[in-house]
Design goal:
This protein has about 1100 residues and is of the alpha+beta class. The chain has eight domains: about 35 residues, no CATH class; about 100 residues, no CATH class; about 100 residues, no CATH class; about 150 residues; about 100 residues, no CATH class; about 160 residues, no CATH class; about 100 residues, no CATH class; about 230 residues, no CATH class. The chain contains 39 helices and 36 strands. The strands form seven sheets. Strands 29, 30, 31, 32, 33, 34, 35 and 36 form an eight-stranded mixed beta sheet that branches. A seven-stranded antiparallel beta sheet has the order 10-11-13-14-12-15-16, with helices on both faces. A six-stranded antiparallel beta sheet has the order 18-19-20-17-21-22, with helices on both faces. A hairpin with a 7-residue loop joins strand 15 and strand 16. Helix 21 packs antiparallel against helix 22, helix 21 packs parallel to helix 24 and helix 24 runs antiparallel to helix 25.
């Protein structure tokens, strides 16, 4: 359970399970490391996507699908598609919300989406932020509302036949305070149901109250709700009369959620004067518009924090000292400072990253409360503000009581002040100890050494606190810093210290050391203490390294300095790569996805299939929580399998992009594009045998292949056909390894011959393999790689650079370890030679006796340029389009081999130029009447902005990959349709190219922003290769071109840059554009049209 939540980035929930696991296995180092990781994660969460980003991507997805949703609602005359609609919308909204309640309907001229907080005020803040970011194109057709709206004479009907209205319910209203009431409700109709399903009745009556009164007024005025088994003796009113009854009391029944959230509550607390107490316990007065967060913090209840964390959101507060603000001006300076801080986030920019929820004033500190939609940007803005003030220090702390603090500003070189908020400010009293005097200083320090050896660090600190301030020299400061750091890092009696207390102690230790900087900066011990202080402060490792380096210079024999440097560098690297999986992290991590055409799965069928197919009994894991119909967790030996349904497509077009890798399944991309939901499968646990974990993973996925709506399997960097996957999984019935389920064998051809590579070996802790530049047939090369993989995995072999491998005594293939060719260059792979060192080919197959290939063999060989032709095309690209530093090699080719040359931005052209190289190897089917123009061969060009992301990881996201997909699609269109492409031709993609653009078609023109001659490359044999610029189009631009011609459309587009802009203006609906910053508009079409005519 801990692992499951941990890999969902829900560290708060994971922490509780890991702590329980540690109780059962007290010395388990893995669990302790995971607990430490969770604690860091709740102090400063690292989200793969924060709520701000989730909101943006969710609305983009909704905008793309809303027309189809409206059509489904219009066509659903018999109300049979309600559940399908709900599932569809829930899948979209789940991209932003871990849990979401909503209703849909048609209200007047527009459709309605009602987001319901279900009485949860914390959730209401999220919904209001989400609602405010609905794009204009959605609001044209939809009203996005927060909270159920009041409707007169409304009734509530359930699927099981119950029907009640406000006239069926008696209520008794009891005043709890000013504008606050308790409701007791009695409904005679529901008495039979009350005995069997009390929770269901309670839900029906509270929901009906929402509909009668409005959900926002319900939340605002009704503090408690009770369901009675018999009526009270006192007079009652009907629930339907409740709105009028409250209005007579002078209450405003506004349904505006923002107005409700702007209502603040003032509160007073009895302050805890102990400076050692937790943050906020010193508060005297405060105000808040979100009481649940304050109560949750004070009661150490993290339910609301877990809920926010699951959505990529954090609630917390800024904390800063008040001593420098009090002085002689009373409290006004305190309030002025708080106003200045709040004004930073009252701007449009600030409101994007957080919402203020109140603040408080304590004895020692001031507090400003908020909910952050983008915690990183919020902290950056706060840090910039605090650094521009005279406040000596400031921290961020979440509303989790046990979390650590994140420093935003730290004490500069200033002496310690008397009212400083010290972690341990008390002095020793009522016990025998040697007080410090100049005469008995040595005895005092010997006493400290004894307590230090006994892990009595608090006693050391309190003894040092008794030293008069004017006697506190370097030696006293150093002793105090050592005691504070030992207290923070080790804790009294080696029992540890809560992180929030430890952070305070470390901050004070650094402050004490800073007070003696001049005397200490050239001492090894002083630099050591500064290094330790910053190392153990969360996220401050960069500051620790310079001190550790100086420490190493001053004490070269001390190996601990180098250790601190290494540990800090590791932690920095780990933090910097928190959103990118590290190569080594793949070992033992078995995850995959089953693509679904509908967001449904049959959990019971899966359990039956596991038993029938693999003889594995699935006993659902009991975590003393309610079972979830959409998730299943079960144990098999020391392994834990998790299967969960997600009612939305895999984000970022990842499945579609990887589906292109499957050269054996022509429909892979089409199927991946159409999936609407997915099942996630993961196998975790302590099992050390990776083959066993891999087998269980394959068995679970194979069982999922039998689900009714399963359409594809996404794992090992490719999308498999379910029948293919399940068929190869059956190899395990014969005690064979299912290597074709685990490892993808990629094949591609270049001028050097056929190449192959593996993908998936890293999960088993092995290097990927490549075989390059062979004269092998594709099937033979794949078999060769499969044999190597089987040998390595079955025997757990580590292949080494410089060794050889073979399958007979005389068969020897050299092994070289070097940067990847088929795979990213930053990934080291093993290059295995195809030919044996005796010069014999690896395969023993004979060529056909007549020396010719069969028709089937020919069909598997891509058309490619000759070496001389390739050189000519390459030189042409370099001359007219620019020198290319990178080439996207096509890994799997069955018709033509289309590489894409990437010309980077330059002073002359501040944009990327992508040019195909390989399309022209195929001669297109050009009409006979155009034969004289030599239009049979072509290559394509597209221009992308200089900030377009083209790294390997970025191209897994369809947002960045679609122009490359477009080039490849166009390059293969003449083969697939036995046609030709030339100037003015268009291609309709039917769907938008990606979620962040409405561009959905393309037209070919002559090359842009190039010298004369760029449009044609003459090959050595006299044939010509024509180069065309690809211009993406909007739907109405395509229709305009079809109604008129290419020349007319180009006239319309005069002034529009040919460099791709996913959100450029539409030439048809918005007129001609001018581009002051870029003059690369498209060339005149007349020459090209004349040449074709």
């Amino acid at each position: 359970m801990g692992y499951s939540y941990y890999y969902l980035d829900q560290e708060g929930k994971a922490l509780r399970y890991f702590e329980k696991a540690l109780e059962a296995r007290p010395d388990d180092e893995d669990t302790m490391q995971l607990i430490d990781g969770c604690k860091k994660g709740i102090s400063l969460p690292q989200f793969s996507e924060c709520f701000r980003e989730r909101t943006e991507s969710t609305w983009k997805d909704f905008a793309q699908q809303e027309a189809q949703l409206r059509r489904m609602m219009d066509e659903d005359k018999d109300h049979t598609r309600g559940q399908e609609l709900v599932d569809r919308v829930e899948g979209i909204l789940n991209q932003a919300f871990d849990e979401i309640s909503f209703e849909m309907g048609v209200g007047g001229e527009k459709y309605e989406l009602i987001l319901t907080p279900e009485g949860d005020k914390v959730k209401l803040f999220e919904l209001v932020y989400f609602q405010k970011h609905a794009p204009k194109e959605v609001l044209e057709h939809w009203n996005i509302l927060v909270g159920r709206q009041p409707i007169r004479n409304i009734g509530l009907r359930t699927e099981d036949g119950w029907n009640i209205s406000g006239d069926d319910v008696q209520i008794w209203l009891e005043e709890q305070g000013e504008n606050s009431f308790a409701i007791s409700a009695y409904c005679e109709k529901l008495l039979p149901k009350l005995q069997e399903e009390e929770g269901r009745v309670w839900w029906m009556l509270t929901t009906l109250t929402d509909q009668v009164l409005g959900e926002i007024p319900h939340m605002r005025y009704i503090d408690s709700f009770d369901v009675l088994e018999e009526p009270k003796a006192e007079p009652s009113i009907l629930l339907s009369q409740l709105p009028d009854h409250l209005k007579k009391r002078g209450l405003e029944l506004s349904t505006d959620p923002e107005a409700y959230l702007e209502s603040y509550l003032g509160y007073e607390m009895k302050p805890n004067e102990d400076p050692d107490a937790d943050w906020r316990l010193d508060v005297m007065v405060g105000s808040t518009n979100c009481v649940p967060l304050i109560n949750g913090y004070l009661n150490a209840d993290n339910d609301f924090m877990d809920q926010l964390h699951a959505d990529g959101t954090v609630a917390g507060f800024f904390c800063y000292p008040l001593d420098t603000l009090r002085e002689e001006e009373g409290s006004q300076k305190i309030f002025d400072f708080r106003d200045e801080l709040e004004e930073v986030f009252a701007t449009d920019e600030g409101a994007e990253v957080l919402t203020l929820t109140g603040g408080a004033t304590g004895i020692y500190c001031g507090y400003v409360d908020f909910i952050a939609w983008d915690i990183r940007e919020a902290l950056n803005m706060a840090k910039e503000f605090f650094e521009g003030t005279d406040i000596p220090w400031a921290v961020f702390h979440s509303f989790r009581r046990e979390a650590g603090s994140v420093p935003l500003k730290q004490q500069d070189d200033e002496p310690e002040t008397e009212d400083q908020d010290d972690e341990l400010d008390e002095t020793l009293t009522g016990m025998d100890y040697i007080p410090y005097t100049k005469q008995n200083a040595e005895a005092f320090y010997e006493q400290l050494e004894q307590w230090n050896d006994e892990d009595e660090y608090t006693r050391c600190i309190q003894a040092l606190n008794t030293v008069p301030e004017d006697w506190r020299d370097y030696r006293i400061a150093y002793a105090m810093a050592r005691a504070l750091e030992n207290y923070a890092i080790i804790g009294d009696h080696d029992e540890g210290t809560p992180r929030y207390k430890g952070d305070k102690a470390l901050l004070r230790a650094i402050e004490v050391l800073e007070s003696v900087r001049e005397e200490g900066k050239d001492k090894a011990e002083w630099n050591m203490r500064m290094a330790y202080g910053y190392q153990y402060l969360y996220g401050q490792e960069e500051k620790a390294i310079p001190y550790a380096q100086r420490w190493a210079e001053l004490a070269p024999e001390d190996e601990d300095a180098a250790t601190v440097i290494q540990e800090c560098q590791k932690e920095i690297a780990k933090r910097d790569e928190s959103e990118v999986e590290d190569e080594s992290d793949h070992t033992g991590v078995f995850t995959g996805f089953v693509l679904l055409s509908k967001g449904k799965w049959d959990k019971e069928q899966f359990i039956r299939d596991m038993k029938e197919k693999w003889d594995i009994t699935v006993d659902e894991y009991d975590a003393s929580e309610e079972k979830d119909d959409d998730a299943l967790v079960f144990e098999v030996g020391d392994m834990l399998a998790a299967v969960s349904l997600n009612n939305y497509p895999i984000p970022g077009g990842e499945a579609e992009a990887n589906a292109e890798n499957n050269y054996m399944w022509p429909d892979a991309v089409k199927v991946a594009k159409k999936h609407s939901a997915h099942i996630m499968v993961a196998v975790l646990g302590k099992e050390e045998n990776l083959l066993e974990k891999g087998k269980l993973f394959t068995k679970v996925v194979a069982a999922c292949c039998r689900q009714k709506y399963a359409t594809g399997i996404y794992t090992s960097g490719v999308v498999f056909e379910p029948q293919f996957y399940e068929g190869f999984a059956d190899m395990m019935q014969n005690d064979e390894l299912p290597i074709f389920n685990w490892i993808w064998f990629g094949l591609w051809r270049d001028e050097n011959g056929m190449n192959g590579y593996t993908y998936g070996m890293d999960v088993f802790g092995k290097d990927e393999m490549e075989v390059l530049g062979t004269d092998a047939e594709p099937g033979d090369l794949r078999d060769f790689l499969a044999s190597l993989v089987s040998y390595v995995l079955e025997n757990d072999v580590e292949l080494q650079d410089g060794e050889t491998i073979g399958f007979t005594a005389d068969d020897k293939h050299t092994i070289t370890r070097s940067p990847g060719v088929s795979l990213p260059e930053d990934q080291m792979t093993l290059k295995i030679s195809w030919k044996s060192t005796d010069g014999s080919p690896d395969d023993g197959d004979e060529d056909d006796s007549d020396g010719e290939r069969s028709e089937d063999e020919e069909s598997g060989v891509p058309e490619v340029y000759t070496e001389e032709e390739m050189n000519a095309v390459e030189e042409h690209i370099q001359q007219y389009f620019g020198k290319f530093e990178n080439v996207f090699h096509e890994l799997d080719s069955t018709d033509i081999h289309v590489d894409i040359c990437v010309v980077p931005p330059s002073e002359e052209r501040d944009y990327y130029t992508l040019v195909t190289m390989g399309m022209g190897a195929h001669r297109m089917n050009v009409p006979e009447e155009l034969a004289e123009y030599k239009l049979e061969r072509a290559e394509l060009v597209i221009a992308l902005p200089g900030n377009w992301k083209l790294k390997h990881e970025d191209l897994k996201n369809e947002r960045w990959y679609w122009p490359i997909r477009l080039l490849k699609t166009l390059a293969r269109l003449p083969i697939a349709s036995d046609t030709w492409l030339g100037f003015g031709h268009t291609m309709d993609n039917e769907d938008d190219f990606a979620k962040d653009t409405k561009l959905c078609a393309a037209m070919l023109t002559g090359p842009q922003d190039t010298e004369d001659g760029s449009e044609v490359c003459t090959l050595p044999n006299g044939e010509e290769v024509n180069f065309y610029q690809v211009i993406p189009l909007y739907r109405d631009e395509l229709e305009y071109k079809m109604e008129h011609d290419a020349d007319a459309l180009l006239d319309k587009m005069d002034g529009i840059s040919f460099v791709v802009d996913p959100t450029r203006q539409d030439a048809i609906t918005r007129g001609t554009l001018s581009n002051d910053d870029f003059d690369g508009e498209m060339d005149d079409a007349s020459y090209h049209i004349e040449s074709i005519e």
